[in-house]
Amino acid sequence: MDALRVLAVLLAALFVLGAPGLPTVLALRLRPLTALAVVTPVSAVLIAASAELGRLLSIPWTVLSPLVLGLVVGGLLWSAGIGRRRSRHTHRAGAAPEPVAHDAAEHRVAAEDAGVAADGADAATPDAAHDTEGAASSTCTATSTCTATAAATTTATATTTTGVPGTALGRGLATRRGRAATILLGLAIGGGYILLRALDMMGGLFRVNQSYDNVFHLNAVRHILRLGDGSAWTVGGMTTLPGEETFYPALWHQTVSLVVQLSGQDIVLASNLVMLLLGTTVWPLALMALVRTGTSAGPAGWLAAGALAGVASAFPLSMMSWGVLLPYLYSLSMMPLVLMLIVHLVRLAPDGDQRLTGGQLGVLVPAVFGAVALAHPQGVFVALVMGVPMMVWAVLATATDLVRRRPRAGIRLAVLVPLTALVIVVGHDIWYRFRPVEASAAVWGPTATTEEAIWQTLTLAPNATPIWLPLGVLVALCALAVLIGSRSRWLVIAFLAAGALSVATRSLPVDDLRYELTGNWYSDNNRITVMLATAAVPLLAVGLDVLLRWAARLLPVLRGTAGAVLAVALCLAIIAVGYFSPSTDMSKTYLEREWRSDNLLSDDERALLLMLPEVVPEDAVIATNAWNGSSLAYAISDREVLNTFMSFQAEDEVHLLNGHLDDAQTDPEVCDAAEELGVDYALDFGPKELHDRSATYTGLNEISETGAAEVVLQVGDAKLLRMLPCRGTDGSMNG
């Protein structure tokens, strides 16, 4: 039975994360891996847009809204012909040929003896590729001539690279099936590793995360379902007075609510499975798409990008526990795609059939950037931290090309300079406009000295965990390989930028400088240090690809099956190095505590909540305390509660009942307030509360002892009580 419930939610989650964006992705005619990677952010932005349109047009919230909007958008894009239409192999007579040397990786995989990597793919600059293309096309007078020239150029490249015919393995990896198998293997290794660690951390798919934010996230999903309105303003209004609704980035809650609707299962299971899909599938696919389209790495690089997705213990696992920051997890799981789009925008990506066209970028940039921002606004700050240095690097690299008189360098520089300047100006405004207003909100302090912070960053250690030199050596070695043997040096720039902020948040004292640099994340070390993974995993993947190419040159045996086996073995070895680090062991203890404790909700309390629908009428209101988990009756039991979250705005009557509901028999004003708000039941989960608090809502602590209510259901120490009739201020009996 449980297996069928899990399967129903899993299928529903895959549908919600992919189906709305599928028409758009098909209309753009993207390459398969890129299409798989971007379908989730495209679906996400359509979900968010349809939620606001539904509120505006009074359309009930169902999965049909994003599906219909997706069909409309996809149809418009298809009719506009924005997607890729060109052929890789055919040309009109007299027309300029397709690039023959733009993507060295693609051609060299076919001719490479080693099936493990594309030899020297990054050694040729995009400009050099343009030069080669120009030289070849100058002799073309007809289609046959162009085709022959292209073939000759490819053969020459392969001969120069390897000097021997390709092996069966190399030819196999050059096929569509071979590339797909490589990508699927990387996804299976990386996603499987993250899944196993996550399930071990959680202790089961049906468990409730025992953290502060989870009360809001679970209840917000129920709020959407109850009101039939998925708007971000609806979610923001859950904890405010009527008429004072605020915007709350609700993409996570909108997505999970659709999964619950479609599957018919409970919110907790749906939330957990969406979380796992983001970490085990969306995140590795985004990493592989970044390496596949943004660098000239060969199959070993694509494989490693997926396989090493979980090598940094800080992400995605910590965001599945800390907080629990599920919207931030949603945002960061798509962050590699932001880097991918930036690389294409500033022409740092290699030429070839993987390069995104202007039309594709015109659709994907607002879609992906919008999804990241709507999932969690702090994702915008992460994008600025890594993206702006990458753009500056692109300006400097293009200026160098101009000095060297590379073709079209001047045109590219004329576009890049104002674009980069615009991003810096707008980013500066965003940085200050949308951070916490007061520095007092940035409550997290340093956890290490500067030297310790540097080493923790280099070794990808989560916040406040030990250094692990073996992993640091691997990171440094791969960074050096990228610098020496690759044109994708922007990976090092992105890593240095994320690393600098990681060092700052771990070590800077609480002062103005710390707030300037880290205040946008409330100076929360956990939120800031996790961004390292976005830059570190691609850096390791491309570095490993370069190292394997060098090894294949020295040892010809690695140009066959042995090289492919070595690539997989090295990925597994790096994963093992990360897994057996002391930082992983320490963080594991902490992460498990957030799932396996009873700090928020005990097993008895959860069992009682599951029984409530059999006892409490649908229109009843239950007095609850969010601090002790009883307010999760809203999400789990689908019953109205007096308090949905720890922090909230409410009428005076609500605060009166929170403090004095147990006096309903003796205080007529309390009796009137209970009658006015329709409070018929109360939950008594004892004085123990989250964060070592105790008995915050005194009106619920002795309610069964004062005669205000009677116990109607009890599991262990957890009690459901029914309010007894009481006398109001007008002398009449209420209840």
Relevant terms:
DUF6541, 5-stranded mixed beta sheet, mainly alpha, 61% helix, 3 domains, Glycosyltransferase RgtA/B/C/D-like domain-containing protein, single chain, membrane, transmembrane, elongated, 4% strand, transmembrane helix, 735 residues
User: What's the mean pLDDT score?
Assistant: 87
Largest β sheet strand count, sense and barrel closure: 5 strands, mixed
Instruction: Provide the low-confidence segments as ranges.
Output: 86-166
Q: Count the domains.
A: 3
Structural class: mainly alpha
Region (Disordered): 120-139
Transmembrane segments: 6-26, 33-51, 63-82, 180-199, 267-290, 302-322, 328-346, 358-375, 381-399, 411-431, 467-484, 491-508, 528-548, 560-580
Pfam families: DUF6541
Keywords: Membrane, Transmembrane, Transmembrane helix
Care to describe what's here?
This protein is mostly helical. It folds into 3 domains: 2-76 and 179-593, no CATH class; 104-170, no CATH class; 603-734, no CATH class. It is built from 31 helices and 7 strands. The protein has helices at 2-18, 22-28, 32-57, 64-80, 104-111, 126-137, 143-162, 168-173, 176-202, 212-227, 232-236, 251-263, 267-294, 299-307, 326-333, 335-345, 358-375, 378-403, 409-433, 450-458, 469-485, 490-507, 512-518, 525-529, 532-554, 561-579, 582-596, 603-611, 633-637, 652-660, 668-677; strands at residues 621-623, 640-641, 679-684, 709-715, 718-723, 726-727, 733-734. The strands form 2 sheets. It has a 5-stranded mixed β-sheet with strand order 2-1-3-5-4. Strands 6-7 form a two-stranded antiparallel sheet. It is elongated and about 95 Å long. The two termini are 40 Å apart. Residues 86-166 have low confidence and may be disordered.
